[in-house]
Amino acid sequence: MPSVRPAFARNRIHFGETALILVTAMLLTVASGALSFASKTGCTTPKGGGSREWLFAGPHQVMSCYSDLFTMWHERGLSEHLFPYVHGGITPDGHLFGGVVEYPVLSGLIMWFSGIGADNDYEFLWHSLLILMPFAFIVTILLALMTRWWVMLWAATPPLALYALHNWELPVVCAAVVGIAVVAWGCSASPTTGLRRWSVRATAIVAAIPFAIGFSLKIYPGLFVLPLMLYVLTRGEKTRDRRSGLDWLGASYVALSAIVTVLVTQVPFMIAGYDGWKAAIDYQTLRPVGLSTNSIWYWGLRPLLGGITPAYTSIVDTASPLLIVAAFAFACFLGWRSYMRDGTFPWLGVSAAMLAGFMLFHKVHSPQYTLWILPFFVLLRVRWWLIALYLLGDLLLDITVFHLMMEQSSLTKTWVTVGLNVAVWSHAIILAILVVQFVDARPHEPLASYLRATVPPNGALTRLAAADWRAARSWLGAPTLANEHVTLRPLALSDGAELAKVPGDPALYRWTPPLPRTTEAAIEWIRQALADEARVPFAVIDRSGKLVGTTSFYDVNEADLTLAVGYTYYSPDAMGTTVNPAAKLLLCEYAFTTRGAVRVVWHTHSQNAQSRAAIAKLGAVPEGELRKHRRFGDGWRTTAQFAIVDDAWPASRERLRERLTALAAR
Length: 666
Prior knowledge:
Layout: H1 7-40, H2 68-75, E1 89-90, E2 96-97, H3 105-115, H4 121-147, H5 152-155, H6 158-163, H7 170-187, H8 200-218, H9 225-233, H10 248-272, H11 274-286, H12 296-304, H13 310-342, H14 347-361, H15 370-379, H16 384-404, H17 410-440, H18 447-451, H19 466-469, H20 472-476, E3 481-482, E4 486-490, H21 496-499, H22 519-531, E5 536-542, E6 547-557, E7 562-570, H23 579-594, E8 599-605, H24 609-617, E9 621-632, E10 635-645, H25 649-664
Parallel strand pairs: 7-8
Antiparallel strand pairs: 1-2, 3-4, 4-5, 5-6, 6-7, 8-10, 9-10
Helix pairs in contact: 1-4, 2-4, 3-4, 3-8, 4-7, 7-8, 8-9, 8-10, 9-10, 9-14, 10-11, 13-14, 13-17, 14-17, 16-17, 23-25
């Protein structure tokens, strides 16, 4: 008999891989932080006094040492240790004074904390490193736990080193990732019960809190509350049974959770210094769309209108927010369309699409915003070339924009301008593509399994993405399929109790391996089905909403576009009804028509005459017998094999429909 690795050994390997990923990613994060600090020290004031000679970059220096930290230290009262927002305001021409900074209140609070005990910009940079890097570590840990090796896109690519100390992005990115991790935890299955750890409502209500905190840091995580509300509104369940209606109350609770959190973070500052608090908002309204904004507006609309004219400013101030709102609406529309098709509102993909639309049409597109979208490249399956082009464009943007602000020769300035335009417009094109592609992008493992309340497959120590791209779900997905007779939805651990009630008289299943007849056995049966990378298991739901059986795609081979249908059994009262032919019609139609399969196979015990007859009625053609094909009890069984190929499927589909009509007429 072949050897089987004990469960404790498999668990030890899984834990070892997790530890290796975490250690590697954390070391790379530390290295990125150290590199960021070292690269920025060149812009600090010399110890003996004097001016900062190369604020942006020297003529022969490729990478800039510029950081917004220094601008805030010298020009926003941080060097005087003024508490933000309380005593200051904004002049009519848009200049801040009295300790007010142009960022939301929690970012200003972090800046103030970083300045405590600092006497110069170098010390302020050092304190900022100590305060900001823990947020980077939290992001690294959470992304590693949710995506395994994909975390290296965050920890090992240039943006973290470039922007860790460029601005105060790390806390807001952390807030966004924490909110996503909360949903992942709440949706994941309890290993003891197989049920979701938290209800859909409770999960979203808690997740709205870090998103709202992110709103008080840099606005954009607050956007994710809307798709989260829509997820709760649709009850978060992957089912086409919508008789229970939309959960308006739950969605309202999510909104209330976010609103209360924002008020708790904002109101104290509003009370302590309303004028200073409002000045930060007014600054963003009055900010001119100049060279430092790096936006499509500056490089696209400005040349057409002859420069930064009143007409240019007016158009940008009107068109930018309108297009952002339109992008949000479009992303939600695509998400709702996906919900109507698949049964689940893809809140994570819609959140990413909304962020892409925001970054595309906002009047400011600072280089460090790459840190905003980078976690979504980690969490979702985005085409590698889009990620590579985006990161290359980001690197080009960071190199060129600060050189353009220096006094360069006309020849150098021309080449830098061309490079900056390439970066800006490549980002714009990719962001426009991502607004559409993000919505249908499936999460990487194990996040995908957490969100489905299923058990994720174990990853191998030496691979980055095989668990995603080799798995049956990478080709077939995990769809919900329905017709007037039956609904097939992804099988979940929470189905254990109902599945245990399905098997009837053991004599009905004498040609199959023993079926689970207790909740514990059923949960373990489901766990093994979900852990099989070449299998997609379904729960079979009849018209009354009752779980009456299970079936699966298995032996899935994407390279050859072939698969098998099996692991099927039903309750006695479902046998001989429309359930089985209706389920097979859904499976075959999805395999052949939606996913482009060329061959669907059935296997059954060679002596199981009833099963062989049922398979033949589907239109499957017998192809012979496979000796010692499956382990059966203490021995081996000979398997009879049947198949339908794509050319024969239209005729088989008609036979199935005729059979369904006849059965329904009884």
